[in-house]
Amino acid sequence: VLYLFCAALTEHKILFLSSSYQRLTDACRALLALMFPLKYSFTYVPILPAQLLEVLSTPTPFIIGVHSIFQAETQELLDVVIADLDGGTVNVPECVHISLLPEPLLQQTREALSMVLDPELEVADLAFPPSTISASSLKMQDKEIRAVFLRLFAQLLQGYRWCLHIIRIHPEPVIRFHKVR
């Protein structure tokens, strides 16, 4: 999930494959939801019809879902990150370099997601574990996962105001993002 998240943030092509149309739609929507508060501004097609498979060779970034019947047609794509939802694998081609999160944030996010998805890991090594560990409901788990990613964005974007540069040449001041800072 973190590879797909980073691929979407760094504007790579992402293709979901599954034999279930519902799973394709859910996975595409979930990836967009994890990017909140940012909005994905490129091509987004949760279920691509067979007649439009040639769209996969577009040079622009996308998030597209394709039924697994057409998996053979997707094998020749060299610059597309392919997530097989039925097999549970993510294939990143050699020519694609996905910039991951900076190291302290990456490890913290992995640990936080792991605690949400498998809370028993937190007490697995204790000599005297508590008698009961309650798993969160699906609705609560969804909120906890969203909170992990929202916290990640807060940590990534903290201090962004130091990068703002005010230009006062015009009658109205213009605020620009200064990349070097």
TrEMBL record:
Keyword hit for Membrane: no
Transmembrane segments: none
Gene Ontology molecular function, alphabetical: guanyl-nucleotide exchange factor activity
GO-annotated cellular components: cytoplasmic vesicle
Record GO biological process: regulation of Rab protein signal transduction
Pfam families attached to this UniProt entry: DENN (PF02141)
Keyword Hydrolase: no
Keywords: Guanine-nucleotide releasing factor
Domain UDENN: residue ranges: 1-181
InterPro entries, per database record: cDENN_dom, DENN_C, DENN_Domain_GEFs, Tripartite_DENN
Protein name: MTMR5 protein
Species annotation: Nyctibius bracteatus (Rufous potoo)
